[in-house]
Each structure stands twice: as structure tokens, then as C-alpha cells.
Design a protein that fits this description.
about 180 residues; two-stranded antiparallel ribbon; about 40% helix
Length: about 180
């Protein structure tokens, strides 16, 4: 089976990046977010540009803010939005937008731009399981209270993250997102 890949230009070099490549950069902690960002890029690049897009010309907004480290790492690796100061993470901006409420605040709402084009999209309801949300909220609560999460809860959250990432990667982008 051929792996899906996003393709970008970095000056004159053409770079092909798979989800596995993103995990090499990001690690395995928040792989669901990395999978979401990968699918967003697969879905939106053809809508934003008729050729191979150039790093440095993108903008990206994530409605789940700084808690979405997998999304942040994936978009930085592929598009260099953080490097070029074109990454927005303001949770309040997504308050009146569509998309499921995220466990750490904000919504699963995103905007990706390239030059003067912009695509707005949100994650369909039901993609993020309630059990995942509950364990993620527990993790946020433990961090806020500066206490350690129980080992069994950490292991369960990691398993839920892996399961979610697997579901996302096996899905077609149009089965995950609604473009506004």
C-alpha cells in the first residue's frame, strides 16, 4: 500500500512528507493531532494551490490552541508556519465557530491559508470519542493542579490517542472535516 504524502517546495527542493515522517519529528505523544493536521493538509493543499505549494507562504489557525502540540508540530514540519510567524493559536477566536469543543478549550476548527486564499474547516461531530475527551480533560486537570496522573490513566490515554490516530489516518479527509 502506498503511503499518502503531502508535497511542498522548500526554495527549489521538493519534499514529500508522510504521516510516519511527521511522527519522527513530533514523537508519539499527541499523534491524533498530528494525524488531524496531516489530513487537513492533504485536503486543503489542492484547494489552495494548483502547483506544489512553497513553504513560507502558508498561514494556519488551530482552534484548539497551544494544547494541540501534534497539530503544531505537523504544520511546522510541513509548512513552517511557526518559523514564518504565521501560526495562530488564539482559543477565543474559535468560540463562535463550528466544531466540537476540545478537551483543553477551544474547538476543532481550523483555517489554512496560502497567499490570498483561505480554507476554513471543522472536524465533524463524533470523530473524537467521549472516552478520549474524558481522559484528556483529566490530564489537563492534573497539569493545572500540578499533580501526577495515575499510571493506569496515563496508559489508557496513550492507548486512546493511538486508537484515535489510527482511525483518523485510515479515514478519507472528507469523512473527517466539513469545509465552510
Amino acid at each position: 500500500m502506498t503511503q499518502e504524502k503531502v508535497i511542498v517546495k522548500d526554495k527549489n527542493d521538493i519534499i514529500e512528507i508522510t504521516y510516519d515522517d511527521i511522527l519522527k519529528y513530533h514523537g508519539r505523544e499527541m499523534i491524533g493531532g498530528a494525524a488531524l493536521a496531516f489530513k487537513i493538509m492533504l485536503m486543503t493543499f489542492p484547494r489552495l494551490c494548483n502547483e506544489i505549494p512553497q513553504r513560507g507562504r502558508f498561514s494556519f489557525y488551530s482552534g484548539i490552541g497551544k494544547n494541540g502540540r501534534g497539530i503544531i508540530d505537523a504544520t511546522e514540519m510541513v509548512m513552517r508556519v511557526k518559523t514564518h510567524n504565521n501560526l495562530r493559536l488564539d482559543l477565543a477566536y474559535s468560540d463562535d465557530k463550528l466544531g466540537q469543543v476540545a478537551p483543553g478549550g477551544g474547538r476543532y476548527y481550523f483555517e489554512i491559508g496560502y497567499d490570498d486564499k483561505l480554507v476554513k474547516l471543522y472536524l465533524k461531530e463524533g470523530i473524537i470519542p467521549e472516552e478520549f475527551i474524558a481522559y484528556s480533560k483529566l490530564s489537563h486537570k492534573c497539569k493545572a493542579e500540578n499533580i501526577s496522573m495515575k499510571v493506569e490513566d496515563q496508559e489508557k490515554l496513550l492507548l486512546l490517542r493511538q486508537e484515535l490516530a489510527s482511525i483518523i489516518i485510515k479515514s478519507k479527509p472528507e469523512d473527517l472535516f466539513v469545509i465552510i
